[in-house]
Amino acid sequence: MRSHRAETFTRVIDAVFACNGGFLAAGDALTGPVGLTAAQWQVLDFLEDGPATAAEVARRRGLRRQSVQETANRLLRNGMLDRRPNPADARAPLLLLTRRAKEALRALGEAQVEWAEDVAAEVSQEDLETTLRTLRRLREVLAQQRLP
C-alpha cells in the first residue's frame, strides 16, 4: 500500500507528463513557422551558450544521447549546426550554431515571450516559483537515485 506522500508524488509525475505533452505541442506550434521542431529547438537553445557535444546536451537537458545525436544530425543536414573538432575528445565533435540557427532562435524568442506571457498570466507568481523549486529539487533527488 502506498503512503499518501508516494501517491501524491505519483500524481505529480502524471501531471508533469501531461504538461510535457502540452509543452511539446506548444513548442511544435511555435517552431513550425521557422522550420523546426520542439526537439530541435531544445538542442539549438542549449547551444546558444556556446559549442557542446551531443552527450553534453543530452546530459544537461535530461535526454537520451542517441535522440540528441539524431536531432543534431538533422540540424547539421538542414544547415542549422556546424561541427568543430573537440580538443578534449576527437570522437565527440563540438556542435555550434550557424547564422541561420541564430536567426531562427531570435524569431522563436519573440514568439516564446508572447506565449509565455499569456500562459504565465493564468498562474500566480508564487505558484510558479514553488513549482520551479519543487521540480529542481526532484531533479536533484532523481540524479542521486540508483534504479533497481
List descriptors.
single chain; 148 residues; mainly alpha; two-stranded antiparallel ribbon; 5% strand; globular
Describe it for me?
The chain has helices at residues 4-31, 38-47, 54-61, 65-77, 99-120, 125-144, and strands spanning 81-84, 94-97. It is mainly α. The two termini are 19 Å apart. The chain is built from 6 helices and 2 strands. The model has no long low-confidence stretch (mean pLDDT 94). The longest helix has 28 residues, at 4-31.
Radius of gyration: 18 Å
**How would you state the average pLDDT, rounded?**
94
- The helix content is 55-70%
Strand content: 5-15%
What gap, in angstroms, lies between the N and C termini? 19 Å
Q: Major beta sheet, specifics?
A: 2 strands, antiparallel
Count the E strands: 2
Describe the protein's topology.
Elements: H1 4-31, H2 38-47, H3 54-61, H4 65-77, E1 81-84, E2 94-97, H5 99-120, H6 125-144
Antiparallel strand pairs: 1-2
Helix pairs in contact: 3-4
Summarize the structure.
It contains six helices and two strands. The chain has 148 residues and is mainly alpha-helical. The protein has a two-stranded antiparallel sheet.
